[in-house]
Every structure is written in structure tokens, then in C-alpha cells.
């Protein structure tokens, strides 16, 4: 399990530029933050370092408002995880809203720094390597609600197509809202239907990252 950042690492994170997430430190300190996935090194000269979505989350965290019995949802290693829909015990909370907002802001910064033209209106290579989670983050950041237990909501799943995910919602109106949210986040979206005999039959969205 990834350890929490040290006092020195936290000071570097907290001193990050509030707009760009750019951080400064020794080569050893910065390399360690990259290893912890709290920062990334820009591929183009001068190869500055910037906070990842998880690094932004730590910078904006308010520990005194986060009771230990209600830890923030995280993947193994403590990294922010977008909700695909159907996760057990997933509930909405101010802390979750703050986490989603921070993760989305961090993702926009990654787009700006890694897309060749600096565009933030379309997905980047980082998202194409994590299609389902990238689409789910776009939906949650737009205020759409993931399915949880018996409560209806969106569900994002993989498809046989190499660069596409399926998004389902039992409410046609909400499905249309999911489509608009994804388009606004830079995804190409088309609606499809399934035979009633097919598991999860009904309408669903096929979404893929827009390249231009």
C-alpha cells in the first residue's frame, strides 16, 4: 500500500502553483512524487513537474473535515477512483464532490500539458489508456449519478471495440443527459439499442475519445 506523503513531500505539494499544479523541489524529491503517482514529468523541455489528479486531491484535502471512519473512496494505493456504477457502499457526500472536482481539474491540466496543441476540450493519451474510468469521471464531474446498490444511475463498461465504452442508464432522460455530458467533455457519442433478450437490454451509449 502506498504510504502517505512525508512532511517534506506534503510541503512541496501544498506549494504547487494553484493554477497549473507545477511543483518545485530537488530531482530526488520530484522523482519520488512521480513514483507515488502524485506528480508527473512533462515530456517536453524544460521537463517541469506537475501534480496528478491525486496530487491535487491531497493539496486541497481538509483532513479535519474527513472523519477517519469515512475515508475517501480510493483504489489500491490510495489513488482516486472514478465510479463506474454499481460499487458497493458508494454514497454522495461533500467530500466526494470535492474529490471529483479536484480530480477533474487535475485531468484538465494533464490534457493541457500533454495534448500537442495544449487543448483541454478533448481527451488525452492518459484517458485513452483508462477509457472506462475517464468516461466515468467526466460523467460524475458533470453531476451525473452512478448506480449504487438498488439505486438507479449510470453504469460504464468496456466493449469489444478498442477505443469505446458503453454507458447505460434505465432512465432515457438521464441517458440523454449522460450523452450531453460526455460530448461536452470531448467524447464522441452515439446511441444504440439492444434486443430485449440481451442482458441489460435497452438503449445504451457508445462513447469514444474525440481526437480532433
Beginning-to-end CA distance, first to last residue: 38 Å
Strand content: 5-15%
Molecular shape: globular
- Topology, number of strands: 7
- The share of residues in helices is 25-40%
| H/E element sequence | HEHEEHHHHEEHEE
Taking Cα atoms only, what radius of gyration do you get, to the nearest Å?
A: 18 Å
Main sheet attributes: strand count, strand direction, barrel closure: 4 strands, antiparallel
Strand order of the main beta sheet, please? Answer: 4-5-7-6
Number of helices: 7
Q: Taking all residues together, what is the mean pLDDT?
A: 83
Structural class category: alpha+beta
Low-confidence stretches: 62-78, 195-199
Quick gist of this model?
By secondary structure, the chain is of the alpha+beta class. Helices cover 35% and strands 14% of the residues. Helix 4 crosses helix 6 (131-141).
Overview of the structural elements:
It is a single chain. The chain has a domain of 96 residues. The chain has 212 residues and is an alpha+beta fold. The protein is 35% helix and 14% strand. The longest helix has 21 residues.
List keywords for this structure.
single chain, 212 residues, alpha+beta, four-stranded antiparallel β-sheet, three-stranded antiparallel β-sheet, 7 helices
What's the SSE blueprint?
Layout: H1 7-14, E1 22-23, H2 27-35, E2 39-41, E3 49-51, H3 53-60, H4 94-114, H5 125-128, H6 131-141, E4 155-158, E5 165-168, H7 172-184, E6 187-193, E7 203-209
Antiparallel strand pairs: 1-3, 2-3, 4-5, 5-7, 6-7
Helix pairs in contact: 3-4, 4-6
